[in-house]
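[step 3/7] fold_predict: job queued, chain A
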Amino acid sequence: QVQFVESGGGLVQPGGSLRLSCAASGIMFRMYGMTWYRQTPGKQREVVARIGSNGSTMYVDSVKGRFTISRDNAVNTVHLEMNSLKPEDTAVYYCNTIPIRSSWGQGTQVTVSS
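[step 4/7] structure written:
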């Protein structure tokens, strides 16, 4: 059964940086594209960034130039480097495969506030 464990969130001031990690198990990780999502209370999860099994990347417009998604197939982990953080980046961040799975991890809370 696939499992996702997200980590690296925290409280950071506007303009600060965080690096999120998501460890996946129960899948042939290198065969799957991966997506980072985020969710705020009362809203649906939204796509933040994607990375293909071939390393190709895609970003939602609001994070382009600030966030970088990467993967380490040796340890079944996908990262999200977040720079120049803004209050509107505050959310719980999750990862999942492409195509999406029904199971989700617990997420990691990112709070951007002064």
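[step 5/7] annotate
The first strand starts at residue 3 and ends at 7.
The beta strands are 3-7, 10-12, 18-25, 33-39, 46-51, 57-59, 67-72, 77-82, 91-98, 108-112.
exit 0
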